């Protein structure tokens, strides 16, 4: 699939990237090369292949999912510019 300069201009505008007119042909070629690579990847037969997240098989340590309050209220509120009665105090924004 070939990308023309008008499509490259439209993609750049959607991505909020300022591209000068003289750079559009090179950008269109890059987009075409990327799409060509994706088409090559689509040709690979992956039936029966399990998806993986890493090249090395490893199990991550998982802690028990226990609901608690964290017992860190004082430490969290120490970072607040204004805390009252155990809560963050913020200015009133609605009257």
What is the element layout, followed by pairings?
Blueprint: H1 5-14, H2 24-42, H3 73-77, E1 83-84, E2 87-88
Antiparallel strand pairs: 1-2
Helix pairs in contact: 1-2
- Major sheet size, sense and barrel closure: 2 strands, antiparallel
Give the number of DSSP strands: 2
Structural class: mainly alpha
Mean pLDDT: 90
Strand order in the sheet with the most strands: 1-2
Number of helices: 3
Question: What is the element string, with H for helices and E for strands?
Answer: HHHEE
Strand content: under 5%
Q: Which oligomeric form is depicted? A: single chain
Using the CA coordinates, give the radius of gyration: 26 Å
Estimate the global geometry from the Cα principal axes. flat
Helical fraction equals 25-40%
Distance between the termini: 58 Å
Q: Which consecutive residue ranges, at least 5 long each, have pLDDT under 50? A: none
How would you explain this protein's 3D organization?
The radius of gyration is 26 Å and the shape is flat. It is mainly alpha-helical and 95 residues long. It has three helices and two strands. The model has no long low-confidence stretch (mean pLDDT 90). The protein has a domain at 5-42. The chain has a two-stranded antiparallel ribbon. α1 (5-14) crosses α2. A hairpin with a 2-residue loop joins β1 and β2. Its EC number is 6.3.5.-. Keywords: ATP-binding, Ligase, Nucleotide-binding, Protein biosynthesis, Transferase. Belongs to the GatC family. It is an enzyme of class 6 (ligase).
